[in-house]
Amino acid sequence: MLSSYLRTATLPLREGRQFAERSGANFGEGLTPDISACASLQRQSVRSEPLPEKRFAFYRPSLKGRVSACAFFLLALSTPACATPGVTPTEVVVGTHVDLSGPLSPLGIAVRNGLQLGFDDGNARGGAWGRKLRLVVADNGYDANKALEAERGILAPDRIFAMLCPVGTPPVAAAMPPFVNAGGLHLFPFTAADDTYVPQQPLEFALDLPVSEQARIGLRALFAKLGEKRVGVLYRDDALGRAALEGAQAESKRRHMKPPAAALYTPGDTSLTHQLASLHDDGAEIVVLGGVAPEAFAAMRQAHARRWSPVFLCLTACYVPQVPTLGGRAVAGLYAVTTTPIPYPDDSDPALRAWVKRYETRFHTVASADAFRAYQDARLFAEVLRRNGPTLTRAGFAQTLEAMAPWRDPTYGGVPVDFTARDHLGFHSAFLAQVKGGRWITFASTQSKR
Fold first, then answer.
1. If you count DSSP H runs as helices and E runs as strands, how many of each does the chain have, helices first?
2. Are 157 and 31 within 8 A, CB to CB?
3. Taking a C-beta distance cutoff of 8 angstroms, is the pair 402, 208 a contact?
4. 3-state secondary structure of 395
5. 369 to each of 52, 319, 373, how far by Cα in Å?
6. Residue 125: helix, strand or coil by DSSP?
7. pLDDT tens per residue, range 359-392
8. Strands, DSSP E only, in 199-334?
9. For the segment 137-188, what is each residue's pLDDT rounded down to a tens digit?
């Protein structure tokens, strides 16, 4: 389950984009009369010409489309005739589509639970200006078509105020463009693809650091901790691996260091002897692992068998509780880049310990970093509603989010979330974690990508 879960999480965005193009998805038609005029200001088709190979972009509106999007945004600020979907005097309806039945179901269930607990806590404090928060969840089964079906039904842009934390790169890639084209507010998807915020759209906000930035931040943190060392990259032949290589190359170039040694392997290949020998012979002292957890296990075991012990750095794809458990002594000392700590029930932070207990009592399952991240996202969403004031529109919410000072959870802390009118990526820093004593230990310092 773990290997398939992590392996399928790395599929490229172009697959989802093709689903959207084949379906001709556009949710402007069929909207209720009070928002159809607003939606028509922004309706446009997804670009279908070939894209540059080095990018995953699935959503690049034409100049006309961008002007339409801006017109929609400005008009929504000033036109009371455009009723706000999903908002009534008593509630704010928020939707999400996650995998509850497919290969990413552990992640999808955790995100659903975290959002629900966050909304429950917000409602216990009185909601947002007298309105309760209601979560509507659809199962996308890690399937782009199911995500599109959900957005034509219970998650249609005229039924919910916002889409919060949808899960899975292909489902998000297919469903986000038509949702945003129809005027939907799309927030904090669980995917590290940069196309969730580039090119920037007025009602589109993402949190997750792209893989290339994870590699850069991880190397910066290691250099600060250990001093500059020769870098090598062991990477899989796919979008995930290439992005890790690009990040390592960019950070080395910025520091005027020798370009990293690089060794390529086929995804899923766990016989890495030749690649490791190449990196060893090139003098690599830090090895960036551009792959998923099972491949990291294999690389570290085979390196130790050769009596070679470089510093290994993996990305967020490896930062799961099962890595220390399943990897055993072979993964001791492994570093990872992350923005959300794994919530252990015996954590040194009493607030986090109490949260784990509440979560596990409520849902009868082990708390995870994904659940905790979704919970904090729900708390951020509620805070923006509070600061926005009682008159709620999607454009007003977006303006409030852009204008906020960097936000850290007042109870649990964490990496600051910082949006601006020019930048719709919220995370700009991360922290290192390391496997010690059979578990992940986090370091407090962060390394900004700016």
1. 15, 14
2. yes
3. no
4. helix
5. 34, 9, 6
6. coil
7. 999 999 999 999 999 999 999 999 999 999 999 9
8. 204-205, 231-236, 261-265, 286-290, 311-314
9. 999 999 999 999 999 999 999 999 999 999 998 899 999 999 999 999 999 9
What count of Cα atoms within 13 Å lies in the side-chain half-sphere of residue 450?
8
Pick from 331, 33, 304: nearest CA to 158: 33
Between 323 and 119, the more confident residue is: 119
Give CA–CA dist 124/358, Å, rounded: 14
Distance in angstroms (rounded) separating the CA atoms of residues 212 and 242: 8
- pLDDT top residue among 399 and 450: 399
3-state secondary structure 319-381: CCCHHHHHHHHHHCCCEEEECCCCCCCCCCCHHHHHHHHHHHHHHCCCCCHHHHHHHHHHHHH
- pTM (2 d.p.): 0.78
Instruction: Reduce the DSSP state of residue 284 to 3 states and report it.
Output: coil
Question: Using an 8 Å Cβ cutoff, are 77 and 47 in contact?
Answer: no
Residue 26 DSSP label:
-
Residue 267 DSSP one-character state: T
